[in-house]
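Hi Y.,

Following your request, here is the sequence exactly as I used it, all 276 residues.
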Amino acid sequence: MLGSFLVMLREGFEATLLVAIVLAYLSKTGHREGFRGVWLGVGAALLVSLGVAGALFLTASELGGTAAALFKAGTMWLAVVFLTYMVLWMRRQARTVAQGIRKGVDGALEKGSVFALAGLVFVMVLREGLETGLFMFGLSQASTPFAVTIGGAAGVFGAVLLGYLVYAGGRRIDMGAFFKITGVLLVVVAAGLLARGVAIMEIEGLIPAFFYPLWDLTRVVVLGSGSVVGQSLTAFLGWDPKPDLLEFAAWAAYLLGVGYVFLRPAPAPRPAGARG
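Below is the corresponding structure, written out as tokens. Let me know if you'd prefer a different format.
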């Protein structure tokens, strides 16, 4: 539940933030007639995103045996790739994203077409929507559909609320702190998805298990896979009460490696006129 909440909160807020910036800029520059194009773009992007997400779940339900394991593990690892890219990209671009959006809006307005503005918003929101569908599918393989749905719905509500606050300007939100905290938590979620994919491949015998089990806590009731705590840890951390060395090593290597890249201080900008 927590993993799906974080994904929907982060991805949903990125989408609503982009839309809020466009709406606020249109309102400020006296082009409120462009709102219709914005909502057309948002609606089209949501429809395409839902269609792609539905196709993922339908494809998974039609597969069985080794094919299903390959599809699930591959989708989890693809989600890890996109999560990693998204978190690191936002770390680098958070300061300039609003400026880039305003330039794009100016270009669409110069064309004088509602569809130009709709297309700009469609592309921005579609990227977030496709990533979200992929992430939610990956998380659904490590948790119950009910928990993923509840967590995702709560995340959407929080994202829309934050986006409205940005648009209305009634409350100052520390964007840097928000993206840093959620970024760290999503790195943890991605490490869990990576490890879970490894475990699925090992269960099917597609890759060998090394030093199995590394530890065995299945008899600890509160940490077992059948407990609420155990299921929550599995969905959020990729927890396995009976892992092997390869599964644990994949989790730890990703968490330490990507975590270091994400948290290391950004290089100070060079003074103007400085030579390389």
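The chain has one domain: 2-263.

Thanks again,
Q.
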